[in-house]
């Protein structure tokens, strides 16, 4: 299993990320992409799971978000949003809500997505509505 992490978090959010990543299965390959953002969609196509770390609102341009969503059409995508992004679902629409999760919810979403990759969970479509997201992730 290949997991690619894009971006960075700091402070408490970084600690939550580190804790969540310790729950990954043995043998999972974790790659941190530090290259230019323009190359991220190309790199994302080679992953089973991509995790984008967003520290503040509007950190990433909409065209990059759209390209990453498209590149991950055959894999899974999580956008882990730090505390400064808490209102993004109401005031921004850069990322589809179905791929977004707050840093404190990352461990649970990571477990869910690993279940999808292992075939034990039904995948949540990128186009899922809020009620579908709630039903899938709050069981």
Topology overview:
Blueprint: E1 2-7, H1 12-21, E2 29-33, H2 40-44, E3 49-56, H3 62-71, E4 76-84, H4 88-91, E5 100-102, H5 106-118, H6 130-137
Parallel strand pairs: 1-2, 1-3, 3-4, 4-5
Task: Describe this entry's structure for a reader.
By secondary structure, this protein is of the alpha/beta class. The longest helix has 13 residues, at 106-118. A 5-stranded parallel β-sheet has the order 2-1-3-4-5. It is 36% helix and 22% strand. It has a single domain (2-137), classed as Rossmann fold.
Task: From the structure above, extract its key features.
globular, 22% strand, 5 strands, Rossmann fold, five-stranded parallel beta sheet
CATH class categorisation: Alpha Beta
Helical fraction equals 25-40%
SSE pattern, N- to C-terminal: EHEHEHEHEHH
Give the overall form. Answer: globular
Low-confidence spans:
none
CATH topology: Rossmann fold
What is the end-to-end distance?
Answer: 25 Å
Number of strands: 5
Enumerate how many helices there are, as a single number: 6
Total domain units: 1
The fraction of residues assigned to DSSP E strands is 15-25%
| Sheet with most strands: strand arrangement | 2-1-3-4-5
Radius of gyration: 14 Å
- Largest sheet features: 5 strands, parallel
């Amino acid at each position: 299993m290949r997991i690619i992490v894009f971006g960075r978090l700091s402070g408490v959010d970084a600690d939550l990320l580190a804790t969540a990543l310790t729950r990954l299965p043995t043998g999972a390959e974790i790659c941190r992409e530090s290259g230019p953002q323009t190359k991220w969609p190309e790199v994302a196509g080679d992953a089973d799971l991509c995790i984008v770390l967003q520290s503040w609102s509007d950190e990433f341009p909409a065209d990059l978000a759209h390209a990453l969503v498209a590149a991950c059409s055959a894999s899974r995508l999580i956008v882990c949003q730090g505390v400064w992004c808490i209102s993004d679902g109401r005031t921004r629409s850069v990322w589809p809500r179905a791929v977004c999760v707050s840093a404190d919810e990352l461990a649970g979403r990571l477990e869910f997505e690993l279940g999808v990759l292992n075939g034990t969970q039904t995948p949540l479509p990128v186009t899922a509505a809020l009620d579908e997201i709630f039903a899938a992730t709050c069981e």
